[in-house]
Amino acid sequence: MLLASNGSLDGVVQLITVLVIFVLVLFITLYVTRWIAGFQKKQMNGSNMQVIETMRLTPNQFVQIIKVGNQYLAIAVSKEQVTLLTKLEEDEIDLEQTNTQSADFATVLKQFKKSLPVKGDEENTSSKDDE
After folding, report:
1. How far apart are CA 64 and CA 51, in angstroms?
2. Are residues 41 and 54 in the same domain?
3. pTM of the shown model
4. Residue where one domain finishes, among candidates 28, 46, 64
5. Is 34 found in the same domain as 72?
6. H or E stretch at 76
7. Which DSSP category does 4 fall into?
8. Phi-psi category of residue 69: left, alpha or beta, with phi > 0 → left and psi -120 to 50 → alpha
């Protein structure tokens, strides 16, 4: 009887140990991922190139407006190649609209919630349309 209870205690201790190690590995992974993301962001900020806007044409084809130095370029990007479409002037690009796309998730979520119709409003608008 004494041996049986000692064996189950060892099992519980092993389970707790494995759970603690698992949680530690998750936290280490989280911090390393954040560190790598911060490092890559610093590397990208120091460059002379910047992607202004991207539009998907097909799953593997995109049209991008990029800034290289002081020039704006429209390029086509596919799986196999990158093709220069044209050079753009700064006044041809709406930079204000492209900067709003870098909003944080909370702002995007609030805008999405505002765009959803309210259940009571649907009934009111449908009855107004019927009249």
Report:
1. 7
2. no
3. 0.45
4. 46
5. no
6. strand 71-77
7. H
8. left
In this predicted structure, what is the pLDDT of residue 102?
55
For residues 58-67, give the mean pLDDT.
Answer: 92
75, 84 contact by CB (below 8 A):
yes
pLDDT tens column, 68-90: 888 999 999 999 999 999 999 88
Residue 68 to residues 52, 74, 86, 114, Cα–Cα distance (Å) = 10, 11, 13, 37
What are the C-alpha distances in Å from 44 to residues 27, 50, 106, 116, 119? Answer: 26, 8, 24, 36, 45
Residue 26 belongs to some domain of the structure: yes
Identify the domain containing residue 30 by its residue range: 1-46
Count of domains forming the chain: 2
3-state secondary structure 18-71: HHHHHHHHHHHHHHHHHHHHHHHHHHHHCCCEEEEEEEEEECCEEEEEEEECCE
